[in-house]
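#struct-pred

JT: dropping the chains for the assembly here, can someone run the whole complex?
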Amino acid sequence: MTKPPPVITLLNDFGLLDGYTGAMKGVILQISPLAQIVDLCVNVNPQDVFGGAYILYTAHKYFPKGSVHVAVVDPGVGSNRKILCLKTKDYIFLAPDNGILSFIVDDEEPEFIIEVTNDKYFLPNVSNTFHGRDIFAPVAAHILNGVNPEELGNKISKIESLNLPRPVLSPEGVLTGEIIYIDSFGNTVTNIHHKSVERVRSSANNNVALTSGDISIEIAGKKILRISESYAESNSGELLAIFGSSGYLEIAANRENAKNILNVNKGDKVVIKNN
Amino acid sequence: MTKPPPVITLLNDFGLLDGYTGAMKGVILQISPLAQIVDLCVNVNPQDVFGGAYILYTAHKYFPKGSVHVAVVDPGVGSNRKILCLKTKDYIFLAPDNGILSFIVDDEEPEFIIEVTNDKYFLPNVSNTFHGRDIFAPVAAHILNGVNPEELGNKISKIESLNLPRPVLSPEGVLTGEIIYIDSFGNTVTNIHHKSVERVRSSANNNVALTSGDISIEIAGKKILRISESYAESNSGELLAIFGSSGYLEIAANRENAKNILNVNKGDKVVIKNN
Amino acid sequence: MTKPPPVITLLNDFGLLDGYTGAMKGVILQISPLAQIVDLCVNVNPQDVFGGAYILYTAHKYFPKGSVHVAVVDPGVGSNRKILCLKTKDYIFLAPDNGILSFIVDDEEPEFIIEVTNDKYFLPNVSNTFHGRDIFAPVAAHILNGVNPEELGNKISKIESLNLPRPVLSPEGVLTGEIIYIDSFGNTVTNIHHKSVERVRSSANNNVALTSGDISIEIAGKKILRISESYAESNSGELLAIFGSSGYLEIAANRENAKNILNVNKGDKVVIKNN
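RK: done, full complex below.
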């Protein structure tokens, strides 16, 4: 059997209106012609490191083990911010050291982190404005070709981290979370994960029976009275709360745009309590 | 010669602003690492089953025989809507049973249709909100790997169908069609197909000499007096009628946006008659 | 070692909202199933030949030698405009003869140019509105398969050219350029290339010490007093001048959108002088 082509995923905010993402792919194919290059998401909001971090976290684990994930939302390009090569059990990440790997390292202890400094694996002429093309793409392609990450630079142990907002459970059993992401359908994703809810529910003195019928979810002055199992349980246009495909609680609207209905933004509070 | 990699095309409304389409590709590559994955169109208007059906129909036939077309515009995700595996002479389609295959089956009798129920080929944890990633992608990849579609579930004979609008020819020889699609250039595609026009023209008592110089095409209160052979026949900005690349009559404007000039929408009437 | 799959890049203004780019890829894979197809950029502004020419020029050279670049911004489709197959030292270009290769031929003498006329390599039914799918895609795929470009038609020596604006150096040492491209970050790219600046600087009676601290760059009534080495040298939101990744001088704003700050457009003047 033919050996499967190695996979590189691209996450960035370069978009598809210019030739930037295309040029990165060209560089990769020059060095690693058999690479299977996949856009994980190249339309992160410009310079939105948090949004990129969230998308990377939720999508990366669906790729084959051994995939190299190249995440370049990089407003600090050309500054002295580090470039990281971070290895988890299943993947290698290349990213600027600006917190874009925060969800990843929050979820899983890395096997090692290397500060990428060996310019042997960069393009010969490195611009100060486009490290995606001049550093990240060629380094990723060389890793795909078998270069040992340890050749890229020295190991480090501490990296930049975003302040990931955590839901807070009050002594009265009120759980307060917030919107951390709004997708292009207008589904508003909160930081309240299924796992954390299960943890609350399985604790002995559980005050919050989150999936029972006697709770309420408050957002933007509106109340939702249960957690649905599917969009289709609700009427068209009706707001609903549901654990989305990422495992986080989302406020959605059946066949409609919940963000527009609620007029909410990232950071807005979501409160869950017993009635 | 190396065996060509099998082709999977993706049509959906997940867009490119989130990680959804990326995650689907990751799942496919985990199961079928040699797959050649092509975006047929992943920017269908959110939940626009008709638009997705039209795009799928016009583009699918340009792909290699044996391609698996995965079409997931799926507002009913998580409801009890069926999931279909439909085989035509040259292609296999995976799609929710919501009419998105209407143009396909209108054009060609399927060889068989299967209701996909065998969760052996799904991801282990199926969400209720993202069957594209959890069901469609892995099933498509398994088909590429050689799984017999008959293993996916039972054959069925009846599927949901959209109400495809047909042009109407009055006894007086007036042909009334409507706009069924507007592309991103502002070209307005009608439901009047070249074939149906030829059928009219070749009938004995043909009252409508559609490509002759003495007809008029009325749309939004404007008259166009002939059917052009190319955009370039008209002056810049001038409205024109032309059989587009899909075979349907389009109202376009040379180097301009006909939709904006006419201020028309899907469903608006187009009337063709002798002067 | 497996022979690397041949690379085709696509540049066009078909966008990703319809099935047009998808259909082109289907056609390519029917003829050349091992092709590695990369979107160089398929979101050029509709019918913006100049913008397409610029993107093609800046990105094409990052692809592997031997890549076939298919550039179809083609407002004249269906007219008698020629179709070109142009060979440079490292690449083959397929494009309409409308100036889209202007930056390429301005930079490098082509090895040959062929007017593509041999319909043996077209799709059997060529529409008048979508030569990207019916002519460019199949011809490119046949070239990838080894068809000699000379079989496509006759050699020609003269092609259409855009009027590429050149910066002007006055006797007083004032250099006047203009904006030729604005990217999706709002960075405004001028026609003042690093090389031309170096040429000025290395001339004996050099009046313009462009990277010294005593120059000013004027754009839209604002003055910038030096050329930065990186975005990060400036404060957030501050305008800066920098040689971008394409080698041209750009007016940017650290973590902000310079186009919006300046309210400038393509063609607006940029003036560099000694203070």
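JT: nice. The first helix of chain C runs from residue 20 to 31. The first strand of chain C starts at residue 7 and ends at 12.
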